[in-house]
Design brief:
By secondary structure, the chain is α/β, with parallel strands linked by helices. The chain has 5 helices and 4 strands; from the N terminus they run βαααββαβα. Helix 1 crosses helix 5.
Amino acid sequence: MKMHPDIPVYGDMAWRGACPTEIAEQITFFQWLRVQYPHSYGLIALHPRNEGKRHHAQTIMQKAEGMAVGAPDIIIPGSPTWLCELKRRDHTKSKWQNGQQEYLIAAKEAGATVGVALGWEAAIIYLKKHLQAF
């Protein structure tokens, strides 16, 4: 999986081996977040449901309703908004979906904090770094 040079990556790009699926990584991250920040970030963090197969008519309707192609896995609103595309710890077992890199670059240009985390532990490191900066 090739990483875009303008999108920071958190985690070990050289790591290879058996690792949880992206969904399992995401569930673990959200469980940790809701325990650590139950009255703040744990309440407002969200995962946009953009993935999955759709019929053409469903896609048209969902885009009209506001679905954004390429939205990252984890969004925490704030100033600045924190966006995290979560991939497997072994990034060679993940792939970019249509529009993901473009979405992150556009969000960065709009002032959001963006990054790719390789596994839930890297996502925690990325979030803690973001929180220390503000």
